Amino acid sequence: MEWRKMRNEGCGMMNRMKIVIPTMLVVGILALWILEKDHSEVPLQYRIPIALLGALISGVLTYFLFKNDADGVDKKSDK
Q1: What is the pTM of this model?
Q2: What is the separation of C-alpha 53 from the centre of its chain, rounded to a whole number of angstroms?
Q3: Separation in Å, CA 20 to CA 2, 38, 48
Q4: pLDDT tens by residue, 21-76
Q5: Rounded distance between C-alpha atoms, residue 35 and residue 47, angstroms
Q6: Which residues of 48-69 are buried (b: 16+ CB within 10 A; e: fewer)?
Q7: How far apart are CA 12 and CA 22, in angstroms?
Q8: How far apart are CA 48 and CA 39, in angstroms?
């Protein structure tokens, strides 16, 4: 009985990761693009860590904020 409970909790985490990873990728790519376009005077050795930290922070926030909504991500309505 307990393994089913643990298995269901794992599925919720995988559903959340389907949201977290694309969010992190989008934020990282946009951060690098904006830093290149608008702040080209910042050296590349500083732009990459800034973008990585932004992506990491957005991933952590997304992970915790979408905790309850992750179950409905892949469900399709019967309309």
Answers
A1: 0.70
A2: 12
A3: 27, 26, 20
A4: 999 999 999 999 999 999 999 999 999 999 999 999 999 999 998 876 555 556 66
A5: 7
A6: eeebeebbeebbeebbeebeee
A7: 17
A8: 13
